[in-house]
Amino acid sequence: MSVPPPPPAWQEAVGRRLFHGLAPRLGERPRSAPPSTLSPFEEITFNRPRGGGILTATRFPAGGPRARGTVVLLHPWTAWGRAYFHRHGRIEALRAAGFEAITVDMPGFGGAGPVAGFLDRDVEAVLRTLLHRAPDRPLAVWGVSSGGYWAVPAIGRLPGVAAAVFEDVSPHLLEWSWRTSPWGRPFYVVFRLLLPSAWRYLDLRRHAAALPPRPSLFVSGALDDGVLPEETRDLASRAGGSALVVADAPHLGSIKIAPGRVVGAALDLLERSVAEATPPLAAFEALR
After folding, report:
1. Helix residue spans in 134-214 (DSSP H)
2. Which of 86, 55, 75 is nearest to 145 (CA)?
């Protein structure tokens, strides 16, 4: 299946405004530096693809003398931004296994600039930059909720990404909103009727089926009202990956209830991706 084309520019512009106008409101939270337990680390930036500006990020070097790979961590829709990953042990586990971790603020969070278009373009810009900076180092993505959502179409255009982990990712953010924020249903109907190309583009079932072959893992909680277990399994099947549904876990709860299972499954996937990886830039260039 071919990679779904982006919607017309006007539909993306209007869709972005509607989408973010309907998104949950987040309280102001001061930018949080990583705790000393995560030292050493350094602040880095990535150039954005449109509208200028930058994305702010933190690099956590691998625990050994040389990184076995780089894992980009993309946060959910929470006021913490990239600081969301300062808890629950993902960074520590990655470093202990020899992986460099990079946490990125999505547009509108932390030190990143304002939103300009759908966020998969920003994710793609980060990944392209890393592919060219370290062409012989395996590159993987670990996205949570909205961070994982926008990663799916981005990595569909980048065969050089060696592996991907997706936690609590809905097949369609507006379908998720239909369940979790029923007050907005008239607006979701208007979106679907007036912006059909944008609606189709936001359907991850189409993107998952077009992903290049790579190890992938989809994780969700059995008690997640917005991401149903059968949807997680369906996305994993379409992407040729595996699914892990954690019993008794709500949205964003799998890592809290079963951290060992979630992190262990992710590390197993990354170990396999390193063993099987073609040099990322070589794979990317071959399929351009």
Report:
1. 146-156, 173-180, 185-194, 196-201, 204-209
2. 75
